[in-house]
Amino acid sequence: MPNLPVRDNPGAFWNFSRTLSFRLVLATVLVVLTVAGVVHSLWLVTAERNVDDIVAGLNREILHGVSGTVRGVSEDVLASHHQMRALFEQGLLNTASPLEVRKYLLGLVAAKPLYTWVEIGFDNGDFWGANRLDAHRIRFVTRRWDAERKLSRRSTDYFRQNDTGLVFERTEEDEEEAYYSPSRPWYQAAVASPGRMVWSEVYLFASSHKPGIDSALALRGKDGRTMVLGIGFELKQLSDYLGRLPVASEGRVFVMNGKSQVVASSHRGFQPPPSLNGGQKQAPMLGEFSDPLLDVAHKVIQNEPPAAEAFRSYRVAGASGSRYFVTLQNTGYAKWMLGTVIPEAVFLERTHANQKTLIVLLSLFALFSAAAAAYLGRRWIGQPVDALRRAAGRIEQGDFDTRLQLKQSAEFAQLGTAFNYMVASLKERERERDMFGRVVSPEVREKLLSGQLQLGGETCWVSVVFSDIRGFSTLSERMTPQEVVSLLNEYLAEMSEAIKPWGGYINNFIGDAIVVVFGAPVAHEEIEWRAVAAAMSMRERLNRLNQRRRERGEVEISSGIGISTGEAVAGQIGSFERLLYTVIGDAVNLAARLETMTKDFPGNPILMNAQTAEVLKGREGLRLVDRGPMPIRGRANPIEVYSLELPELPDSASLSD
Predict the structure, then answer these.
(1) Helix axes 410-437, 442-449, angle to 10 degrees
(2) Which of 228, 253, 440, 604 is 20 to 30 A away from residue 263, measured at CA?
């Protein structure tokens, strides 16, 4: 085969400029430089915008939404109070009907996830209240004050909330000391301002010992008794609500009262550590937290306390050098002040959004520019690569007449020439392998092609299986030559399939006889077991074949099998004009003699020599019978012969090749 022509190195820039590599580099550089220049210029213009104006507008929008939400909660509580007041004053809810009142209070808590308590306290110390325990559980507490014993008897009904309503679970009854409604902060705050809804100071709820706040309204019932309607919620619920605001993911949203005590914060895990203040546990001051963002707000308030009616925005630097925007605004309810602390980087996202808009416009321009490059790339690269792919697919399917003609560039032309030479070589090699594989086994073929087998032989330890059809000469006399060939092909195909899983090398077909070698040309472990397992598989295959022959009305076949283990010479034997890989030696001859000896035993059992049997003794599932020393034709001394009683057919997957 002629050598592949090599193109001379042009050695000149003009010739290089005609290559595909130069064209791709040039096109890529031009597109990248153009897009980068435009993006850089427009981005410089965008970056010069006044960030302070953007921050002020955005903060007003955030605070307006958050403040509106807080006002909405307050208005919702106020609306609930008005509703409760109207129901009681109009007699639609009668305190003489505890079941009716309980149903209303439970329904109000179930409908308002933010409410922790909806309660009624009486001047005699009695108490009714619906309490949300978590997202799915609500309880109703009834307390009856025992003035003589100075304790209250408590009855608690537990309910589970689902899609259909409240489901009663159980009732518990007990006694508790020191819970007297008129002594609670929410009750006292309402009585101090009769007929007007008031907010209590932050205090610890008696039920959960967690900080909370109540709105309360004192009324006088028709029976002349004073009762206070209260709606309370834990600060944790308000903090969770603030934490769900979008701005809380990067910054802080907090609410503080007129004493600069933190009522709630969006900080994850916020739980105000209660501090003692005149014997009453209340919320901490803003400066008592270790949160660095809340510390920034505290320093701002220290330097310039916010006006009660104003919206104030500050731009300050934190301890780490990062810059923050702090905004404060009065909510207009209960002297609560709403504040935000947001890193400056968050506000730059608006500028980044503007940049993305510009990038979209630039991308459209880049797409237009890239369309031309894509067309050229398709013409210079895509078409020849597709042709190469299709040609490779045809070769994979066995079409070795495929040829390529690539003219898109000098490199592809050279690639096409190399590809055609490769295909021609593959075609010749495949033809030789196919012819070679028909005269030798695949194992021998691969070793010969890889140079592992040389002229001559080597001594190795092998197990040889020799099998022959009983009475084949008599059987073939009654058959036509075509029928004999058909029988042998079917029989030998079944035997070959039985041998294959066990790694045996079919050395030769001698008419109706089969010679199988284990241990050459490929060395395996446990060759004795492989030989016996293959022999058993051959018997199993023969039984299936005879079943089909009986169904077709044909004569059954019987065979004898001899197995011998010992030393033999394996290698290429013959002349330079004709070589044959085979195995010769006493082990091969003895296997043939043992096969012939099976005629002397009923059922033509599998016979083997002592070297084979000794290795297999004690193997589970095998039953070997010692037939004693027996004379062998061509040997001066008898040999120990063993027969195999056939057990269940073994699984070839249990032994690695």
Answers:
(1) 130
(2) 228
